[in-house]
Structure formats: structure tokens, C-alpha cells
Design a protein that fits this description.
Elements: E1 4-8, H1 12-24, E2 28-32, H2 35-44, E3 49-53, H3 63-73, E4 78-83, H4 88-96, E5 101-104, H5 109-134, H6 148-160, E6 167-170, H7 177-186, E7 195-199, H8 208-213, E8 214-215, E9 224-225, H9 227-230, E10 235-239, H10 246-258, E11 260-262, E12 269-271, E13 275-280, H11 284-289, H12 295-301, E14 304-307, H13 318-332, E15 339-340, H14 342-350, H15 356-370, E16 376-377, H16 379-386, H17 399-403, H18 407-425, H19 430-437, H20 441-450, H21 454-464
Parallel strand pairs: 1-2, 1-3, 3-4, 4-5, 6-13, 6-14, 7-10, 10-13, 15-16
Antiparallel strand pairs: 8-9, 11-12
Helix pairs in contact: 13-15, 14-16, 14-18, 15-16, 18-19
Length: 465
């Protein structure tokens, strides 16, 4: 998706010349001959860059006055000033007022393209820097693992990412729905556009519409640009969309249908071309039944449903995922990477992870606080980091009971805990458990039945699937 540039000049041939040069390089352009047309164009949609002539005939405001107003209304607006009668003092004044650069007419094509390219790139880097600061250091940016659940999710992403269809990502909190949304954007035709996130759960009801649609300036303040306009030619993620107020749900449903809206406090129609993705941790059909979510919005968002699996549904990915996350956390903290021992990885696999990937990240952070840089993490440290939520199957706290039992009973107690641990670790998979513990598959079946834990294993497996 191309960057959009507004060209403001009172000479038709100059506007057409600049537009032709920029369009040949893949930019989209709009044109205005005076301040009224230029402000109307900006009100209709904020451009990536404004090329603004200093002297404008038949215009209420000249270029420098327009620069001041544009920068007041949107301090992030990039503006390149042009003039056939420019002076050093004029260029200095424009730069002090916030212009990115000043070009004298007649200009060379390569100078124009170089200046425009630098201005657009600087704005992009500035946005990316803000996004990186807003994102957590421990954010996962890819799908790690080779489990059937992750392999299926990758196949789905490869199929739907290029389609530009709306996608509803569902799954428990912390499973990585936002990560999947970012991957969908990066693999789409809009990958050069912005990826904008609106966290519906973190906003007050009265501020949702301003965040979505923006607001016109009042009392001399700046114009607020909403996420729909920010994401023009890119992707907007409505994170936890079930938390959006009902009234706003109706308005966003109309925007998805009509692709235009008015900012809060204004009546100018803003047209946008945005791909909308949404996430939810709730069952939206249940929310519809309870009257908390609009059915028309559900069907507009749920064009392609994509479920994101819980971490316990992909336990075989945990060793690779945990090790890579540990390396990233260590790099972020400027320390040498710790090694997760096999028993530590087994303990991580055996836990249920109700908080999913984000809980795993939190546990790993706690581990790193208590393990020397470059040291080895063992299972006891994992249990300490998980805390009181760690189930009995991950502990051996029954030593006093076992010591008071005959050898045969004590051995059975140990075998029961041992096999239950590994059956949990391998999601109830008999073949993988038998291979790891060194037993024949049929022998393991008999042992599970003898120890009376077959039903418990089935229950755990059913809870994972």
C-alpha cells in the first residue's frame, strides 16, 4: 500500500508535474490549489506527507500560516515546503515551525524524490520506535514449535493472510492472538502499511469513540487522529472486541460496511481503506445471546474464524518455546543465557498453564531473577517460580507418607506419580510416554490400569483437547 502525499500549489502545471513524478515512484497523491482545499483534504484523511508551496494566490492563508495550523492540529504531520522565491531566512523559519525540509523551485527530480523518501522514512521509523516502546520487551513475534496445533495454525495463516478478509481470532487470554494478528499483517499485501492496535478492554466507554474515529480540534488544541484513520492502507486490530460498548459496536459495524465515518465533533466524512482483525477471549455467540454483543458486528468480523490454541494443547512446543524465550529475556537484560535442564523442561511441560504463553514468560522472568547468569535451571527452581499453583503431580512432597509404607506400596506410589507426571507432560500420548520411560506401549497400558490412573489420564487428556 502506497504512502499518500498531498500537493498544495496554486499552479496547476507544478501540481501535475510533482504528482506525475511521485506517482511514477508508487506514491498516491491528492492535490489542492489553496488553503481551503488543502484543509478540506486533510480533514477528509490525514496524508502521510504534505508538499506545501509558500506563496499561494487566491488563498486565505499562505504556506507558512498553513504549516503552523497543520502542525498545531497534528504535531506529527510531515510537511516539505517549496518556493520559487525562497530565502535562507524563510527556510530557517519554516524549519523552526516544524517543516521537515525546504526545496527551492525549480527543483531537480532526484532532489524531490530524495527529500520525500527521507521524510516518509523518518515518519515510519518514528512510528515504529513508538510501537516498539509500547510493546513489551518479552513479546513473542513468531509461532515457535512443531506441534500439530501450531502446524495447523501456520497453514491457516498462509492461506488467509493474503486474502484481505476480516479475521476473528479466538482463544484464551495469553495464547498469542495478538502475535498471530501481527503475522497476518506481515504476510499480507498491506505489510508496508501500519499495524495499529486498539485494546478495547483498556479504554473507558466514553473514550472508545475518540480512540476509534478521532476528534476535531476544540479550544485551540490539536486534532486527534483515531486508529481507523491511522491504519489507512494498513491493518487495524480490535483487541478483545467483546469489551467494546454496544453503542460503539453499532457505529463500527456501519464503518465496516460503508468505509467512512466522521470524527467526534465534526461532520466531514473520512474515507479509509483498512483491513480489520479482531480478537476475543470470550464466546461471542454466548455474548450475543446475553445481549452484550451485536449480531451484525459479529458476522462482519467473523468472515474467517481462526482459533488460537492454548499452550496446554501444544505441550511438545514448550521446550523450544521456553528456551527461545529465555534467550530473548537474557538478551533484553544484557546477561548471558541460562540453560534449561531437561528436568526443568519436563516440569514446564507438566504444568497446565492457565495463563498460557504470557504466564510462561512471567515464570521464566522469575526464574532468571534467582539463577546466576549463564547458570543451569533445574526443576526445583521451576516449581518455586510457578509457586503454589504447581499441581501435586509436579512435586514429590509425599516422602513422609511413602517412608511409612512397605516397599511394594511405596514403589507403587512412586510409579503412579512418575507415570502420571509424564502422561501429563506428553498430553496423554501413550506412544510418546512409553518411548520416554522405556516401556512397551502395551506394558504401559497394563501398568496404568494396574495403578488405577487410566481414568485420570483420560480426564487430563480430555481437558487438553
Amino acid at each position: 500500500m502506497a504512502h499518500e502525499i498531498l500537493i498544495v500549489d496554486d499552479e496547476d502545471d507544478i501540481r501535475q508535474l510533482i504528482a506525475g513524478i511521485l506517482e511514477d515512484e508508487g506514491y498516491e497523491t491528492r492535490q489542492a490549489a489553496n488553503s481551503a482545499d488543502a484543509f478540506a483534504a486533510v480533514a477528509a484523511r490525514q496524508p502521510s506527507l504534505v508538499i506545501l508551496d509558500v506563496w499561494l494566490r487566491d488563498s486565505e492563508h499562505d504556506g507558512l500560516q498553513m504549516l503552523e495550523i497543520m502542525r498545531r492540529d497534528n504535531p506529527n504531520q510531515q510537511v516539505v515546503m517549496i518556493s520559487g522565491h525562497g530565502t535562507v531566512d524563510m527556510a530557517v523559519s519554516a524549519t523552526k515551525m516544524g517543516a521537515y525540509d525546504f526545496i527551492s523551485k525549480p527543483f531537480k527530480t532526484d532532489v524531490l524524490l530524495h527529500t520525500v523518501g527521507r521524510a516518509v522514512e523518518e515518519a515510519r521509523l518514528r512510528r515504529e520506535n513508538v510501537e516498539l516502546q509500547e510493546r513489551a520487551v518479552d513479546r513473542v513475534d513468531d509461532l515457535i514449535g512443531e506441534s500439530p496445533a501450531i502446524m495447523q495454525l501456520r497453514q491457516t495463516i498462509d492461506k488467509v493472510a493474503p486474502t484481505d478478509s476480516r479475521i476473528l481470532l479466538s482463544g484464551p487470554p495469553g495464547a498469542g492472538k495478538g502475535v498471530v494478528a501481527r503475522i497476518l499483517h506481515n504476510q499480507s499485501v498491506r505489510k508496508d502499511g501500519r499495524f495499529v492496535v486498539l485494546n478495547c478492554a483498556s479504554l473507558q466507554p466514553e473514550s472508545v469513540e475518540t480512540a476509534l474515529f478521532g476528534a476535531e480540534p476544540e479550544g485551540g488544541g490539536p486534532r486527534r487522529i483515531g486508529v481507523l484513520e491511522e491504519a489507512h492502507a494498513g491493518t487495524l486490530l480490535l483487541d478483545e472486541v467483546a469489551d467494546m460498548p454496544m453503542e460503539t459496536q453499532g457505529k463500527i459495524a456501519r464503518v465496516l460496511q460503508n468505509k467512512h465515518f466522521a470524527r467526534v465533533g465534526g461532520d466531514t466524512e473520512v474515507e479509509v481503506d483498512v483491513r480489520v482483525l479482531a480478537t476475543t477471549s470470550r464466546n461471542l455467540r454466548d455474548e450475543i445471546e446475553e445481549g452484550r454483543f451485536r449480531e451484525d458486528l459479529f458476522y462482519r468480523l467473523n468472515v474467517v474464524p481462526v482459533p488460537v490454541p492454548a499452550l496446554q494443547a501444544r505441550r511438545q512446543d514448550i521446550p523450544e518455546l521456553a528456551q527461545q524465550l529465555t534467550e530473548r529475556l537474557c538478551r533484553a537484560k544484557g546477561r548471558s543465557t541460562c540453560l534449561l535442564a531437561n528436568d526443568a523442561l519436563a516440569a514446564l511441560q507438566a504444568y497446565e498453564w492457565p495463563g498460557n504463553v504470557w504466564e510462561l514468560i512471567n515464570v521464566l522472568e522469575r526464574l532468571l531473577l534467582n539463577v546466576p547468569a549463564g547458570g543451569e535451571v533445574r526443576s526445583d527452581a521451576v516449581l518455586t517460580a510457578i509457586g503454589q499453583d504447581a499441581p501435586d503431580v509436579m512435586r514429590w512432597e509425599k516422602a513422609p507418607d511413602v517412608m511409612n509404607q512397605p516397599l511394594r506400596d511405596a514403589r507403587e506410589a512412586f510409579e503412579r506419580e512418575y507415570l502420571l507426571f509424564h502422561m501429563t507432560r506428553f498430553s496423554g500420548n501413550i506412544s510418546r510416554t512409553a518411548e520416554f520411560v522405556g516401556m512397551d506401549r502395551a506394558a504401559l497400558h497394563r501398568k496404568l490400569k494396574l495403578l488405577g490412573i487410566q481414568n485420570e489420564v483420560r480426564t487430563r487428556k480430555a481437558g487438553v483437547s
